Amino acid sequence: MIDRISKGRNVTRLLYYLYGPGKSDEHENPHLVAGWRDPITDLEPPIKPDGQRDFRRLSGLLNAPLDAIGRRGRPGTVWHCVLSAAPTDRPLSDAEWNAIGTEFMHQMGLARRDDPAGVRWVTVRHGLSTGGIDHIHIVATLARQDGRVPNVHNDFLRARQASRAVERQFGLTITAPADRTAAVRPTRAETERSARTGGAEPERITLRRLVQDAAAVAASEADFFARLRDNGALIRERRSDADPGRITGYAVALPGHLTRPGEPVWFSGGRLAPDLTLPKLRRRWERPGNAEHHGVQHTQDLSARSVRAALRSAAASAADHARDETMFFARLTEAGVLVRYRYSDQNPGEVTGYALTLPGHRDARSELIWYGGGRLSDDLTLPRVRRRWQTGGRAVPSVPDLGERRAIWDDVIRLTGDTARQLRSLTGTRSQATSDVAAATADALRISARVIKGAPGRDLRRAADDFGRAAREAYTAIPRPTPPGDAVRTTARLLSVLQAVSGRQALGLAALVVNLAELVMAGAELRAEQGRAHQAAAALSAAERLRYLARHSRSTSAPVATAALDQGAPFANARDSFPPATVRPQPPSRPKAPRPGRPPPSGRRTPLRQRATSWEGPLPGWYRQRSLAPRGVPHSRSLRTSCTDDRNS
């Protein structure tokens, strides 16, 4: 039972619409099925000689309590709720809808059975909707018959509880509770505007993803806003009236999304998702002062190349968003980077250089390993950074090289795998650790989808969208940070250093996807144990998408990784408790059209690569040598000669 509440001021106009033809002529046989008094046939609007309904008597009866207290015509005095049955529910009769409407108003507290002085209300039924959904409309005036004003505080949450009570009583499909874990859906106007303008998705969803991606890797509030601006979002800060220097909230907008007067359409964080308000984000960035929650035990296991790439990215970002040395070093400190200054020998108070490291990154003698700005990049030395601030030079590039990328992938796969194994060994504190890991896994999925391009990135994005709701705690509570969760957050920050990688260039993509799927399954099992079936189903849907991606990955480790997921999946209880989500397979790629001036492929000989793949036994040496050459790199004359010699021998 899905409920949707709206408020207005004119009950007569609402009745005209409910008894009218509808927006798509979908209203058939409109009639009353329930009301505040029986028999309901006495309240049915009569039909006039011209065939139209006469609503004067019914409108007068509904407005009488409002007239008695002088509130008629005021905004929010007409309460309208649509109750829709699930497509899988049995067909309901008028008598059943009468009982459902009466029970719903009783559960809402607006018109209890033992309270004859409750609000006046009626229920209209006019057939199926355009989508074939059976539903009713409850119309009530918010004035009690004893002259008091009813309490409608939190009526959205109360309606959800009332709907679930009706579902249990009448044996209907059980829907999700009002635990505030679902993101705010686009309105009908936003969806229609996106379709009219040819957009891929409504602007609300695009902004939600931008904010979630920035929050996943941001280390502070300033870093969060800087990342949003870098991604092209407009930001409007809301400041306190008592203290103008304190920021109490924010709103974001897209540059091309404007109102009719030409103003940006702003969305606050709470209008995007319940966990994206500024107070909730600040809770995420707050970390206890002990070492384990600052990632010390994870950074000490990172390779030197991964640490160097992460430090280069942090220093480049701080240099791009700073205007002087004080702001530069402050941003590095906010990002969790340790800074060591180098002072001049002649002038001890003058800073001539700096070195960076991560907490816990030590050598065999337990001493911190420092990296000077020049070791990170030639453009990150302090003199060059100062010159750039003065002249406004170009941004410092921070793209890791091939060796650093390989090290990052190795560390990411190892950390996610270790976390999955650690969750299996936890007993008493598993619930708390799994809640924190679920939130961190959602961030890792979002960053993976943002970094990896192509079809794998789109599959990861769908999995991240599915898992987003499952990762939220009830009533948007922020879980307490745990070491396993911090390990997954470290992987998200390492992946963000890669910036952009195509699906074919993602080293060990299948292994990472399998580890993420195992963490997602841990979240599904946790939600199943908590009795939150809809969140468990959302997590299972994300896990199935990841399994599909792992099976169809072109990485050489895909078969091994997929077999490990199928045979050794430790979190099988959730998968057995709920049916697996159905993931639509990707359509086969369209064959390329032949180039102009060439005969069609049917008239040509079988390509060499196709003949080689059907070869039984080991491939010839000449084919192995040609297949090892990188794509797009022409073969040298010596290679062609050696291939000819091998073929002739």
Topology, element by element:
Blueprint: E1 2-8, H1 11-19, E2 31-35, H2 56-69, E3 78-84, H3 94-108, E4 119-125, E5 135-144, H4 155-170, H5 188-197, H6 203-217, H7 221-230, E6 234-239, E7 247-253, E8 267-268, H8 269-272, H9 278-285, H10 296-299, H11 304-321, H12 325-334, E9 338-343, E10 351-357, E11 371-372, H13 373-376, H14 382-391, H15 402-425, H16 430-451, E12 452-453, H17 454-471, H18 483-498, E13 501-502, H19 509-529, H20 533-551, H21 558-567, H22 573-577, H23 608-613, H24 621-628, H25 637-648
Parallel strand pairs: 12-13
Antiparallel strand pairs: 1-3, 2-4, 3-5, 4-5, 6-7, 7-8, 9-10, 10-11
Written account of the structure:
- Helices cover 47% and strands 11% of the residues.
- The protein has helices at residues 11-19, 56-69, 94-108, 155-170, 188-197, 203-217, 221-230, 269-272, 278-285, 296-299, 304-321, 325-334, 373-376, 382-391, 402-425, 430-451, 454-471, 483-498, 509-529, 533-551, 558-567, 573-577, 608-613, 621-628, 637-648; strands at 2-8, 31-35, 78-84, 119-125, 135-144, 234-239, 247-253, 267-268, 338-343, 351-357, 371-372, 452-453, 501-502.
- A hairpin with a 7-residue loop joins β6 (234-239) and β7 (247-253).
- It is elongated and about 100 Å long.
- It starts with a strand and ends with a helix.
- The model is unreliable at 288-297, 554-592 and 598-649 (pLDDT under 50).
